[in-house]
């Protein structure tokens, strides 16, 4: 989208803005969204060092595969996690989310060629671990696994090196092995092991109700989705906010992934050919829409515009805000010319009222190189109002 188009969108009425943001048609979802979201004003972009002054912030990392596959991009990857660690106090950062595709190729023996990068699979996992471990004991991190985190290079099967590098007790703020941390339980992966591939967490922000967060494996199997659905239905979580973190869910046209024949859909990969998988529309129908408390869904996977957003009412009349954030194609793209994604992060600050969420897109790399560190267009910076619990 050009700067002229962004400026035009800024001048639209709120209803027209959100009708465009949620896709074609003036649906009930679009009307509800018009009441719930607005673009951020210039005054809403704080000094990056001092933070917004109030509120509680969650950081979302996009697909990081293009940082991990090239050794030259490692400094940008680590600058992202270092900025989060160093600014946890002024931004009151209480949680970090990673939308998956930590690596480009899970298990290649030799890197190089065809834009594959210069690192093999083991080196890429070491890269992701080195960058994200900067947050250990500083900020709890929740990760959803992506298609490139499985198989040889792209979900040929459900083998993954993820569990060799990200175990339950690596970050004591997630789980310390003594009953402390935000993790509460895991469901079995495809091999029957209880790992962080399918995991649930509870975190209590200083404002508003506690959150129950579920992160699911790539192309979640029926068993994983049924576990998540049953967990959300438990009485102890009835007064929580719910958040789903999954790799593939929303397209960059603001529509949920639902075309099984489309390249990139979870059903299109070898891991989905048997039918035991869920794309975005499957997840909406089986898990998100029936659950009373899921307010937020975050995903990555899709490039194109690199972002997407929609809001729909669930079966209980509550708004569900669904967001795609994947900056991996920025900064020169995925081949040797690229820098991994320009260092973009998404900062979600919950205001002290407990239901207003400011969404900002920020790059420590741009800040360090003297450029505007904010993406200010309406696709990247806006405010949501979460429904009362």
Word description of this protein:
There is one protein chain. This protein has one domain (3-385): 4-Layer Sandwich (Purple Acid Phosphatase, chain A, domain 2), CATH 3.60.21. 21% of the residues lie in helices and 21% in strands. The chain has helices spanning 3-10, 14-21, 28-36, 65-68, 74-86, 121-132, 162-165, 222-232, 280-288, 364-368, and strands at residues 37-39, 56-61, 93-98, 141-143, 183-188, 194-203, 211-215, 241-245, 294-299, 307-313, 319-325, 345-350, 356-362, 374-375, 382-385. The protein is of the alpha/beta class and 389 residues long. Strands 1, 2, 3, 4, 12, 13, 14 and 15 form an eight-stranded mixed beta sheet that branches.
Keywords:
Purple Acid Phosphatase, chain A, domain 2; single chain; disordered N terminus; 15 strands; 21% strand; 389 residues; alpha/beta; seven-stranded mixed sheet; globular; eight-stranded mixed sheet; 21% helix
């Amino acid at each position: 989208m050009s700067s002229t188009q962004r400026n035009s969108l800024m001048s639209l009425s709120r209803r027209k803005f959100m009708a465009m943001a949620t896709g074609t048609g003036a649906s009930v979802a679009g009307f509800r969204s018009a009441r719930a979201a607005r673009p951020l004003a210039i005054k809403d972009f704080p000094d990056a060092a001092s933070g917004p002054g109030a509120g509680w912030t969650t950081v979302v990392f996009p697909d990081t595969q293009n940082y991990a596959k090239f050794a030259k991009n490692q400094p940008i990857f680590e600058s992202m996690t270092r900025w989060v660690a160093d600014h946890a106090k002024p931004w009151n950062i209480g949680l970090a989310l990673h939308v998956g595709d930590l690596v480009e190729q899970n298990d290649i023996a030799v890197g190089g060629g065809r834009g594959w990068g210069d690192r093999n699979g083991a080196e890429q996992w070491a890269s992701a671990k080195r960058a994200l471990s900067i947050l250990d004991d500083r900020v709890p991190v929740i990760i959803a696994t992506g298609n490139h985190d499985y198989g040889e290079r792209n979900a040929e099967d459900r083998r993954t090196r993820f569990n060799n590098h990200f175990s339950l007790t690596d970050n004591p703020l997630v789980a310390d092995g003594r009953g402390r941390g935000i993790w509460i339980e895991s469901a079995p992966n495809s091999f029957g092991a209880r790992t962080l591939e399918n995991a649930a967490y509870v975190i209590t922000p200083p404002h508003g109700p506690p959150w129950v967060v579920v992160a699911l494996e790539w192309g979640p199997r029926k068993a994983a989705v049924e576990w998540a659905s049953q967990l959300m239905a438990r009485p102890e979580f009835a007064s929580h906010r719910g958040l789903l973190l999954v790799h593939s869910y929303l397209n960059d046209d603001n529509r949920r992934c639902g075309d099984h024949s489309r390249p990139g859909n979870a059903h299109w990969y070898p891991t989905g050919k048997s039918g035991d998988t869920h794309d975005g529309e499957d997840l909406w129908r089986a898990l998100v829409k029936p659950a009373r408390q899921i307010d937020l869904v975050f995903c990555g996977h899709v490039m194109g515009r690199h972002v997407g957003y929609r809001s729909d009412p669930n079966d209980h009349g509550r708004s569900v805000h669904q967001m795609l954030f994947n900056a991996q194609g920025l900064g020169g793209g995925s081949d040797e010319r690229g820098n991994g994604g320009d260092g973009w992060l998404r900062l979600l600050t919950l205001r002290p009222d407990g239901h207003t969420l400011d969404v900002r897109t920020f790059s420590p790399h741009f800040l360090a190189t003297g450029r505007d560190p904010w993406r200010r267009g309406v696709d990247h910076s806006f405010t949501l109002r979460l429904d009362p619990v």
